[in-house]
Write a structure and sequence with these properties.
The protein has a domain of 41 residues. It is built from 4 helices and no strands. The chain is globular, with a radius of gyration of 15 Å. The protein starts with 15 loop residues before the first helix and ends in a 5-residue tail after the last helix.
Amino acid sequence: MYLPGLHSAPVTPEAGRFGRVIEAARRQGTEPPGLYFLFAARPAAAKAMGDFMQEVMRGPSELSPALRERIAAFTSARNRCRF
């Protein structure tokens, strides 16, 4: 993901838990997942995405939630993305 300035933008109190994770990572000298920066900048988008993911991962399906989690973890690993 590339949004100029997003990674270096100051974290505001509205950023909530994503802002706290970003600040903790900065203090430790590590890089949090890039999506956290977007969620910190757009809390309403984070809530909408979270609601969507809960429905996809936990809503009615022929696949168990455990199997859906395994599929997500496998896909993330194949994409070299931290899950």
